[in-house]
Amino acid sequence: MKSAKRGVSEVVATLALLVITLAAMAIYIQGFNLYYSGETGLLSGIFRSGSEQNYERISIVYTFKNGTEPNEALYVLVCNYGARDATIERVIIDTVVQSYSPQVVPVGEVTAIRIPLSSTFSENVAHVISLITERNNVISAEFRV
Amino acid sequence: MSLAAKNCFRTDGKRKGNAKGITNVLGAILFILAIVALTSIIAIVAAEYSSYVRSADYLSNLERERSSESLYFQYAAGNPLKLNITNTCGSSIKITQIVVHDKTSNSLVVNPIASIPIVLNPGMTEYNYSITGINTASSNATIMIITSRGNAFIIAVEGGKVLFRN
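Output (C-alpha coordinates, whole complex):
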Protein backbone atom coordinates (compact mmCIF):
# COMPACT_ATOMS: atom_id res chain seq x y z
CA MET A 1 0.00 0.00 0.00
CA LYS A 2 2.65 2.41 1.08
CA SER A 3 4.90 1.90 -1.96
CA ALA A 4 1.95 1.99 -4.40
CA LYS A 5 0.85 5.34 -3.01
CA ARG A 6 4.35 6.72 -3.34
CA GLY A 7 4.62 5.56 -6.97
CA VAL A 8 1.40 7.22 -8.01
CA SER A 9 2.36 10.47 -6.35
CA GLU A 10 5.73 10.53 -8.16
CA VAL A 11 4.10 10.00 -11.53
CA VAL A 12 1.56 12.71 -10.81
CA ALA A 13 4.30 15.04 -9.61
CA THR A 14 6.37 14.40 -12.75
CA LEU A 15 3.38 14.94 -15.01
CA ALA A 16 2.45 18.12 -13.15
CA LEU A 17 6.03 19.30 -13.42
CA LEU A 18 6.09 18.61 -17.14
CA VAL A 19 2.78 20.37 -17.73
CA ILE A 20 3.79 23.39 -15.67
CA THR A 21 7.20 23.58 -17.32
CA LEU A 22 5.85 23.24 -20.86
CA ALA A 23 3.16 25.84 -20.20
CA ALA A 24 5.69 28.21 -18.66
CA MET A 25 8.11 27.65 -21.54
CA ALA A 26 5.41 28.27 -24.13
CA ILE A 27 4.21 31.47 -22.45
CA TYR A 28 7.74 32.68 -21.85
CA ILE A 29 9.04 31.98 -25.37
CA GLN A 30 5.97 33.52 -26.98
CA GLY A 31 6.29 36.63 -24.87
CA PHE A 32 9.99 36.81 -25.51
CA ASN A 33 9.60 36.49 -29.25
CA LEU A 34 6.80 39.06 -29.28
CA TYR A 35 8.93 41.48 -27.34
CA TYR A 36 11.93 41.03 -29.60
CA SER A 37 9.97 40.95 -32.87
CA GLY A 38 9.86 44.76 -32.68
CA GLU A 39 12.99 46.85 -32.72
CA THR A 40 12.83 47.56 -29.03
CA GLY A 41 15.22 44.86 -27.91
CA LEU A 42 18.69 46.18 -27.32
CA LEU A 43 21.07 43.65 -28.87
CA SER A 44 18.75 42.25 -31.53
CA GLY A 45 17.59 45.80 -32.32
CA ILE A 46 21.15 46.91 -32.93
CA PHE A 47 21.79 43.99 -35.30
CA ARG A 48 18.46 44.42 -37.06
CA SER A 49 18.83 48.15 -37.65
CA GLY A 50 22.44 47.56 -38.75
CA SER A 51 21.41 45.01 -41.35
CA GLU A 52 18.59 47.25 -42.60
CA GLN A 53 21.14 50.06 -42.94
CA ASN A 54 23.37 47.76 -44.98
CA TYR A 55 20.54 46.84 -47.35
CA GLU A 56 19.69 50.51 -47.99
CA ARG A 57 22.02 51.96 -50.63
CA ILE A 58 21.55 55.24 -52.44
CA SER A 59 23.88 57.38 -54.49
CA ILE A 60 23.79 61.00 -55.61
CA VAL A 61 24.00 60.97 -59.39
CA TYR A 62 23.65 64.60 -60.42
CA THR A 63 22.65 68.03 -59.11
CA PHE A 64 21.51 71.15 -60.87
CA LYS A 65 19.83 74.41 -60.00
CA ASN A 66 16.63 75.55 -61.65
CA GLY A 67 14.19 78.42 -61.37
CA THR A 68 14.60 82.03 -60.37
CA GLU A 69 14.27 83.62 -56.96
CA PRO A 70 12.13 83.17 -54.90
CA ASN A 71 11.25 79.83 -56.57
CA GLU A 72 14.82 78.76 -56.98
CA ALA A 73 15.45 75.10 -56.21
CA LEU A 74 18.18 72.54 -56.30
CA TYR A 75 17.37 69.28 -58.05
CA VAL A 76 19.24 66.19 -56.93
CA LEU A 77 19.09 62.95 -58.85
CA VAL A 78 19.23 60.04 -56.41
CA CYS A 79 19.64 56.42 -57.44
CA ASN A 80 18.55 53.59 -55.13
CA TYR A 81 20.75 50.57 -55.89
CA GLY A 82 20.09 48.75 -52.62
CA ALA A 83 17.52 46.20 -51.58
CA ARG A 84 15.23 48.47 -49.54
CA ASP A 85 13.14 51.51 -50.44
CA ALA A 86 14.93 54.54 -49.05
CA THR A 87 13.22 57.51 -47.43
CA ILE A 88 15.26 60.69 -47.48
CA GLU A 89 14.34 62.57 -44.33
CA ARG A 90 16.80 65.44 -44.12
CA VAL A 91 18.92 67.44 -46.51
CA ILE A 92 21.89 69.42 -45.30
CA ILE A 93 23.80 71.77 -47.58
CA ASP A 94 27.00 73.30 -46.22
CA THR A 95 25.96 72.50 -42.60
CA VAL A 96 22.55 74.19 -43.06
CA VAL A 97 19.48 71.96 -42.66
CA GLN A 98 17.17 72.68 -45.59
CA SER A 99 13.37 72.74 -45.44
CA TYR A 100 12.40 69.54 -47.14
CA SER A 101 9.51 67.06 -46.92
CA PRO A 102 10.57 63.38 -46.81
CA GLN A 103 10.57 61.55 -50.12
CA VAL A 104 10.81 57.84 -50.94
CA VAL A 105 13.26 56.53 -53.53
CA PRO A 106 12.05 53.07 -54.62
CA VAL A 107 14.48 50.19 -55.18
CA GLY A 108 16.15 50.34 -58.61
CA GLU A 109 14.75 53.77 -59.42
CA VAL A 110 16.29 57.17 -60.08
CA THR A 111 14.32 59.96 -58.47
CA ALA A 112 14.78 63.71 -58.74
CA ILE A 113 14.28 65.40 -55.40
CA ARG A 114 13.56 69.10 -55.23
CA ILE A 115 15.09 71.19 -52.48
CA PRO A 116 13.81 74.78 -52.26
CA LEU A 117 16.74 77.09 -51.70
CA SER A 118 16.31 79.55 -48.88
CA SER A 119 19.52 81.47 -49.48
CA THR A 120 21.38 82.47 -52.60
CA PHE A 121 24.01 79.99 -53.68
CA SER A 122 27.39 81.27 -54.69
CA GLU A 123 28.25 79.96 -58.14
CA ASN A 124 31.42 78.13 -59.15
CA VAL A 125 32.16 77.33 -55.53
CA ALA A 126 32.17 73.79 -54.20
CA HIS A 127 29.25 73.01 -51.89
CA VAL A 128 28.62 69.85 -49.92
CA ILE A 129 25.22 68.18 -49.85
CA SER A 130 24.33 65.44 -47.37
CA LEU A 131 21.21 63.31 -47.53
CA ILE A 132 20.10 61.57 -44.34
CA THR A 133 17.75 58.63 -44.68
CA GLU A 134 15.19 57.16 -42.32
CA ARG A 135 17.65 54.38 -41.44
CA ASN A 136 20.32 56.95 -40.58
CA ASN A 137 22.48 56.42 -43.62
CA VAL A 138 24.29 59.58 -44.70
CA ILE A 139 25.26 60.14 -48.33
CA SER A 140 27.37 63.15 -49.14
CA ALA A 141 28.61 64.65 -52.38
CA GLU A 142 30.32 67.79 -53.54
CA PHE A 143 28.69 69.96 -56.21
CA ARG A 144 28.85 73.32 -57.94
CA VAL A 145 26.04 75.43 -59.37
CA MET B 1 6.95 -0.74 19.41
CA SER B 2 3.94 1.20 20.63
CA LEU B 3 1.35 2.68 18.26
CA ALA B 4 2.29 6.22 19.18
CA ALA B 5 5.90 5.58 18.36
CA LYS B 6 4.93 4.06 14.98
CA ASN B 7 2.79 7.11 14.14
CA CYS B 8 5.62 9.35 15.10
CA PHE B 9 7.97 7.57 12.69
CA ARG B 10 5.43 7.66 9.87
CA THR B 11 4.76 11.33 10.37
CA ASP B 12 8.44 12.17 10.39
CA GLY B 13 9.06 10.01 7.34
CA LYS B 14 6.20 11.57 5.36
CA ARG B 15 7.26 15.07 6.22
CA LYS B 16 10.81 14.41 5.20
CA GLY B 17 9.77 12.85 1.88
CA ASN B 18 7.32 15.65 0.93
CA ALA B 19 9.80 18.37 1.74
CA LYS B 20 12.39 16.73 -0.51
CA GLY B 21 9.92 16.32 -3.37
CA ILE B 22 8.80 19.95 -3.35
CA THR B 23 12.38 21.20 -3.24
CA ASN B 24 13.30 19.03 -6.22
CA VAL B 25 10.29 20.20 -8.22
CA LEU B 26 10.93 23.85 -7.45
CA GLY B 27 14.60 23.44 -8.27
CA ALA B 28 13.80 21.72 -11.52
CA ILE B 29 11.31 24.44 -12.52
CA LEU B 30 13.76 27.20 -11.71
CA PHE B 31 16.52 25.40 -13.56
CA ILE B 32 14.39 24.82 -16.64
CA LEU B 33 13.19 28.43 -16.61
CA ALA B 34 16.76 29.65 -16.39
CA ILE B 35 17.81 27.40 -19.27
CA VAL B 36 14.83 28.47 -21.39
CA ALA B 37 15.58 32.14 -20.71
CA LEU B 38 19.21 31.75 -21.65
CA THR B 39 18.61 29.68 -24.76
CA SER B 40 15.86 32.09 -25.92
CA ILE B 41 18.18 35.06 -25.62
CA ILE B 42 21.05 33.26 -27.30
CA ALA B 43 18.84 31.92 -30.12
CA ILE B 44 17.25 35.29 -30.92
CA VAL B 45 20.51 37.25 -30.76
CA ALA B 46 22.27 34.60 -32.86
CA ALA B 47 19.53 34.75 -35.50
CA GLU B 48 19.73 38.54 -35.67
CA TYR B 49 23.52 38.45 -35.75
CA SER B 50 23.56 35.94 -38.61
CA SER B 51 21.16 38.14 -40.61
CA TYR B 52 23.44 41.11 -39.90
CA VAL B 53 26.46 39.14 -41.17
CA ARG B 54 24.54 38.24 -44.34
CA SER B 55 23.70 41.91 -44.90
CA ALA B 56 27.33 42.93 -44.37
CA ASP B 57 28.36 40.29 -46.92
CA TYR B 58 25.75 41.64 -49.37
CA LEU B 59 27.06 45.17 -48.84
CA SER B 60 30.73 44.30 -49.30
CA ASN B 61 30.03 42.28 -52.49
CA LEU B 62 27.85 45.07 -53.91
CA GLU B 63 30.38 47.81 -53.17
CA ARG B 64 33.29 45.74 -54.53
CA GLU B 65 31.46 45.09 -57.80
CA ARG B 66 30.29 48.71 -57.91
CA SER B 67 33.79 50.11 -57.56
CA SER B 68 35.09 47.83 -60.32
CA GLU B 69 32.44 48.82 -62.89
CA SER B 70 33.84 50.61 -65.94
CA LEU B 71 32.48 51.45 -69.37
CA TYR B 72 34.39 52.70 -72.40
CA PHE B 73 32.56 55.10 -74.72
CA GLN B 74 33.31 55.85 -78.36
CA TYR B 75 31.60 58.39 -80.54
CA ALA B 76 29.88 56.77 -83.54
CA ALA B 77 27.52 59.33 -85.09
CA GLY B 78 26.17 62.80 -84.36
CA ASN B 79 22.50 63.17 -85.25
CA PRO B 80 21.03 61.55 -83.29
CA LEU B 81 23.96 60.89 -81.02
CA LYS B 82 25.19 57.31 -81.36
CA LEU B 83 27.74 55.70 -79.09
CA ASN B 84 29.67 52.47 -78.93
CA ILE B 85 29.66 51.30 -75.31
CA THR B 86 32.13 48.63 -74.15
CA ASN B 87 32.19 46.89 -70.81
CA THR B 88 35.83 46.93 -69.72
CA CYS B 89 35.45 45.38 -66.28
CA GLY B 90 35.32 41.77 -65.12
CA SER B 91 31.64 41.55 -64.28
CA SER B 92 28.42 42.10 -66.20
CA ILE B 93 26.98 45.60 -66.25
CA LYS B 94 23.30 46.35 -66.55
CA ILE B 95 22.41 49.82 -67.79
CA THR B 96 19.05 50.48 -66.19
CA GLN B 97 18.44 54.19 -66.62
CA ILE B 98 19.46 57.01 -68.91
CA VAL B 99 18.82 60.57 -67.79
CA VAL B 100 19.30 63.60 -70.02
CA HIS B 101 19.64 67.10 -68.61
CA ASP B 102 18.91 69.50 -71.45
CA LYS B 103 20.80 72.62 -70.44
CA THR B 104 19.16 74.80 -73.06
CA SER B 105 15.66 74.34 -71.61
CA ASN B 106 17.02 73.32 -68.17
CA SER B 107 14.76 70.28 -68.19
CA LEU B 108 15.32 66.73 -67.13
CA VAL B 109 14.27 63.71 -69.18
CA VAL B 110 14.41 60.31 -67.50
CA ASN B 111 14.68 57.29 -69.81
CA PRO B 112 14.21 58.85 -73.24
CA ILE B 113 15.13 55.52 -74.81
CA ALA B 114 12.94 52.44 -74.88
CA SER B 115 15.78 49.95 -75.37
CA ILE B 116 16.83 49.63 -71.75
CA PRO B 117 17.86 47.76 -69.68
CA ILE B 118 20.96 46.68 -71.60
CA VAL B 119 23.18 43.97 -70.19
CA LEU B 120 26.83 44.10 -71.23
CA ASN B 121 28.94 41.07 -70.40
CA PRO B 122 32.69 41.54 -69.81
CA GLY B 123 34.36 42.72 -73.04
CA MET B 124 31.07 43.11 -74.87
CA THR B 125 30.31 46.20 -76.99
CA GLU B 126 26.96 47.71 -77.81
CA TYR B 127 27.45 49.37 -81.22
CA ASN B 128 25.65 52.49 -82.42
CA TYR B 129 23.65 52.93 -79.26
CA SER B 130 21.34 55.77 -80.16
CA ILE B 131 20.37 58.47 -77.70
CA THR B 132 17.32 60.03 -79.28
CA GLY B 133 16.72 63.74 -79.01
CA ILE B 134 20.41 64.61 -78.86
CA ASN B 135 21.94 66.32 -81.87
CA THR B 136 25.65 66.77 -81.31
CA ALA B 137 25.83 69.92 -83.41
CA SER B 138 23.06 71.82 -81.64
CA SER B 139 22.46 70.19 -78.26
CA ASN B 140 23.82 71.37 -74.97
CA ALA B 141 23.15 68.50 -72.59
CA THR B 142 24.51 66.20 -69.93
CA ILE B 143 23.72 62.52 -70.35
CA MET B 144 23.88 60.16 -67.39
CA ILE B 145 24.14 56.45 -68.04
CA ILE B 146 23.16 54.75 -64.80
CA THR B 147 23.84 51.14 -63.95
CA SER B 148 22.01 48.75 -61.65
CA ARG B 149 24.80 49.17 -59.09
CA GLY B 150 24.17 52.91 -58.84
CA ASN B 151 27.13 54.11 -60.89
CA ALA B 152 26.56 57.05 -63.21
CA PHE B 153 28.70 57.56 -66.32
CA ILE B 154 28.48 61.15 -67.46
CA ILE B 155 28.63 62.27 -71.08
CA ALA B 156 28.63 65.97 -71.89
CA VAL B 157 27.43 67.29 -75.25
CA GLU B 158 28.45 70.90 -75.68
CA GLY B 159 29.48 73.18 -78.54
CA GLY B 160 29.38 70.40 -81.11
CA LYS B 161 31.61 68.15 -79.01
CA VAL B 162 30.91 64.96 -77.12
CA LEU B 163 33.00 64.61 -73.98
CA PHE B 164 33.46 61.32 -72.13
CA ARG B 165 35.40 60.45 -69.03
CA ASN B 166 36.97 57.20 -70.24
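DSSP finds two helices and eight strands in chain A.
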